[in-house]
Amino acid sequence: MERIYKGKQLDRIGFPMGGLGAGMLCLEGTGALAQISIRNAPNVSFEPNIFAALHICGEHPNTRVLEAPVPTFKIMRSPDGGMMGAGNGLVGKNYGLPRFNGEAEFQSKFPFANIKLVEETIPLNVSLTGWSPFIPGDEDRSGMPFAAVEYRFENPTDEQISAVFSFNAFNFMGLDDDAWVEKREDGFILRQPGSKESPWKEGAFYAFVDERAKVDAAWFRGGWWDPFTMLWNQVEKGDMPDRCFEDGGKSVGGALSIPFTVKPHESEVIRLKMCWYVPNSEMRFGADLDDSKETYRPWYSEKYASVEAVHDTIVLEYDSLYADSKKFNECFAQMTLGSEVQEAVEANLAILKSPTILRQYDGRMWAWEGCCDTVGSCIGSCTHVWNYAQAICHLFPRLERSLRQTEFHESQNEEGHQQFRASLPIRTSAHDFHAASDGQLGGIMKVYRDFKILGDVEWLKDIWPQVKQSIHYCIETWDPNHEGVLREPHHNTYDIEFWGPDPMCTSFYLGALRAMVLMAEVIGEDGSEYDVLYQKGRAFMENELFNGEYFEQQVQWKGLRATLNPENDFPETAELLRTEGPKYQYGIGCLSDGVLGAWMAEVCGIGEILSHDKVLSHLRSIYRYNFRENLRNHSNPQRPGYALGEDGGLLLCSWPHGKKPSLPFVYSDEVWTGIEYQVASHLMLMGENELGRKIVKTLRARYDGTVRNPFDEYECGHWYARAMASYALIQSCTGLSLDEEKHILYYRETGKDYQAFLAGEHGWGLAGIKNGKPFAEAVYGELQVNKTAKVI
């Protein structure tokens, strides 16, 4: 049963719509369009004056903005600052116009969002559906710079009702006085030209309906708020003109309208379609090793020559895009894994619609970790963050493999060092910082996973030399004595270095070594050197790092190749180093990521790499010591906004037996959804279903719309990639995976029938247990299964 949001839960909802790597706008819980982020970058607070309205004709005329009441927190919010801010009365906002004042309801069924509006003085039942294409396996159709809102008007009365629908927008594309609004037969285009000096300024937004449209591209010209006042006069009277300036003047906005009549007990649907085109940007990140000054261009700039070309494709393909997206939506909704799992997986698919994802001109994916309000957060498809994200590899495997291409080619040098943050546009990287141990080792496991999803041995052979370079760099840099553990200081996802053997990064090492053994077997090479290291490392981790309850770190800074010089720091820091050793360690703490590599190995198809019982003990300890029903008594001097006060959540680390370092690793007291999901997923994989579900349920309670957006799980930025660890919950609940190399469907027996969404290289559909027997049924494309195999 999908959650229905209402009342204060509508306040923070922003449902991303747009194309995969093509920009976003959000449908808010009220029905408003906001967070317009279509200029190749996030713009989270951008809420231009755009709105749809309904005018009821007849003896009792009534006009309303097609939205629920404005959330009260916006009244004193100043996203625009200056003279446009709250202190000056919110100049330019449309909040003062009448709206639907009854209790609205919002329900998401990704990639669709449905809103029911209620207003007792309006004789029509009004609802709307926002959506944008999402078709797994088809990144181009899923990546169109396009979104739509379908408004449905039902007449429950015995009388015919006449009305006028309008959509109105000030030219939010405008950056200077050269901007203009262009009248078209079915709508209007908001335009901003570029120039030779500033090509990045170029942008166009096309709003359109159908041939019934009346289009006003000649708004009243005047000072103060004359244009807006005159516009509302027209909307309120239902007297919308069809015109453009004959004197060559430029309108500050555009409006489209459709007069319509609804017969008794019938309905009318008006489809508002929006597409955009911003072919250039100023973005260029990473060190320059050549004279090229090329900047990022979105993938669609190569496929389409203009916003009109995008529009023409939408006109031709709207019905098929809708139908195929609906097919995914209906298939996904048929999962029987429980509401908390369904919601967690579905909500974070919204990340794929957000500005976190970019696709450059050749179609290759590049991504931020998340989004700050006006710029991406942390460049470069960061390997140690994207380790956790398990959605794209299954839903859009070609895009996922493009990340491997970047990691093992442009971002890797001949020694095997990987720059864990790729340059943009994608090009050869400088190697001027630490390699990330978890990111680089996780990439090796992901090569194996991606090979199994693809099933093409030739692809594996092509990348194999670079994979071997990578693992040998890892061995010689962090395990130079070939012990099977990472002993030398190793950089990781906490943006610091761990000194001495720690279970989190060593489990990544074991998973990577085991993956090397399996891949060498496929290639036809001898992988015994990797197996020897794996066996040594496993024995060390199980015997030396396990304390009877959980795995812990052995902090070490002496007897290493690396040296730690306390004299090179502040005096107080130097004293701390002398007494406690390196800053930012966790020692005997219980780390929620402590067996992360073992989880990665499971979801990558590598299998168990450590003692089942000891991993399970560690996971139970995480739940026992790190899970909190609320955080009223928890101290967090770091970043408390992710969870605090009455919120419940899973801490990154705790020290149940004392000896917490004075300065533990810098995020240790925080709560991150991506880590909560991987722990929950791992618990469920290991049979602790209820513990995992409790973590997920508690996490999602923080995102109920009253304080946080249910479709924006944030960490170091909005729509944070790590949260896509939630997708692994499907595999955790069911054991389902498809080996495309051998066409084997893996499944788990749970004692009852179930079904879940399953995607492969060539199609997707449903799989599970039906009448006690495993099954797989394709809904789109093909799911080739020649054999089934049970996993424990």
Give the neighbour order of strands across the main sheet.
1-7-8-9-10-18-14-13-12
Shape: globular
- How many runs of DSSP E, i.e. beta strands? 34
Spatial gap, N to C terminus: 29 Å
| Class per helix and strand makeup | alpha+beta
Cα-atom radius of gyration: 28 Å
Strand content range: 15-25%
Q: Major β-sheet, in short?
A: 9 strands, antiparallel
Overall pLDDT: 96
Contiguous helical run count = 17
Helix amount, in percent? 25-40%
Low-pLDDT residue spans = none
Question: Which terms would index this structure?
Answer:
single chain; 792 residues; alpha+beta; six-stranded mixed sheet; 17 helices; 28% helix
Secondary structure layout:
Layout: E1 4-6, E2 14-19, E3 23-28, E4 33-37, E5 50-56, E6 62-65, E7 105-109, E8 112-117, E9 125-131, E10 146-154, E11 161-170, E12 180-183, E13 187-192, E14 203-208, E15 214-217, H1 226-237, E16 243-244, E17 253-262, E18 267-277, H2 300-303, H3 307-333, H4 339-348, E19 357-359, E20 365-367, E21 370-371, E22 376-377, H5 383-386, H6 392-395, H7 397-410, H8 437-454, H9 457-478, E23 490-491, E24 497-498, H10 503-523, H11 528-544, H12 571-580, E25 590-591, H13 596-603, H14 612-626, E26 627-628, E27 649-650, E28 653-654, H15 673-685, H16 689-701, H17 728-734, E29 737-739, E30 744-748, E31 754-759, E32 763-770, E33 773-781, E34 787-791
Parallel strand pairs: 15-16, 30-34
Antiparallel strand pairs: 1-7, 2-3, 3-4, 5-6, 5-11, 7-8, 8-9, 9-10, 10-18, 11-17, 12-13, 13-14, 14-18, 15-17, 19-20, 21-22, 23-24, 25-28, 26-27, 29-30, 31-32, 32-33
